[in-house]
Amino acid sequence: FGNSSNSPRLHLLIPVTGPSLLFCKSFASAILNSYPPPILINFNSTFSNPAFARGAKLAGIADYLSDPLLPPTSPNPIDIDSDVVLITDGFDVWFQLPPPLLLHRYIAHFPPGAVVFGADKLCWPNTASSAACRLPPESTLPNDVYGVNQTDNDPGGYRVRPRYLNSGTVLGGWRGVREIYKRAKELGEGRGGKVWSDQGVLAEVWGGELEREQMKESELAMVMDYESRLFMTMTHAHEDLQWEIVNITTSADINSDLYLTRTHLPTLLHNELFLAKNIISNSTPALLHFNGMKFPLGNNKDAGWWNRMWWF
Length: 312
Prior knowledge:
Oligomer: single chain
Structural class: alpha/beta
Low-confidence stretches: none
Radius of gyration: 19 Å
Largest sheet: 6 strands, mixed
Strand order of the largest sheet: 2-1-3-6-5-7
Strand content: 15-25%
Order of helices and strands: EHEHEEHEHEHHEEEEE
Number of strands: 11
Helix content: 10-25%
């Protein structure tokens, strides 16, 4: 997917082992926002225990990035290094805004070729002494964004600025993402393919990179989306979110690019959308990742927040 000759092609990868109501919601939201058909990693696969499934998740993504199954009309593997790949969890990510806006923000606000992860308020599941928990840079959000002497001092982890890696949403240049998942796969294989947390392994990769940065030997451009321009990670952040009716032709400030939405949503009938906004960063994220508490996702009896999305 590319919205102009100057835009990189976008590929969507979703690791998911089988169909479910939650996956159908995520998939439907991607279709309604005109994302490219996703590559489903490990679909219809079964594993003897969850640890092997998580190891296979990392390996499956790494293997596809190293040897993508492309149709004859697609670029060859050499050309694909200049493409952009988006990886999302299969059960708790909803797409809110279309690819042209996502790519515009990625190019405008992040270093060329960077691999951007969702930013989390909690460092989990890595230990407090790990590099992934000790060494992350400060958030780019103001240090008084929750109030003077209140920001980052909440022992409950709610009124804190996100700065830790969350692996549920990833966007970056194909080459960089491939190298990160190659290293993660190798770490998993070193543990016999049994991985307690794929996020923990990816955070280990980032921790190693942070240590190399201290020695001026950085190899991977791994950065966090501190301001929810691309992704909003919902751990301890439900109160940071507010639903608003937004006129996409007159939006200002950080969301002035919402006009890009108008011509790329074939299902859109008007210029006003009901959108979820991060009121702390004042940004309207392209994707919502409902990690942590799952009540917004709903279930067979309750729609949760699903009927708040702009297509209703």
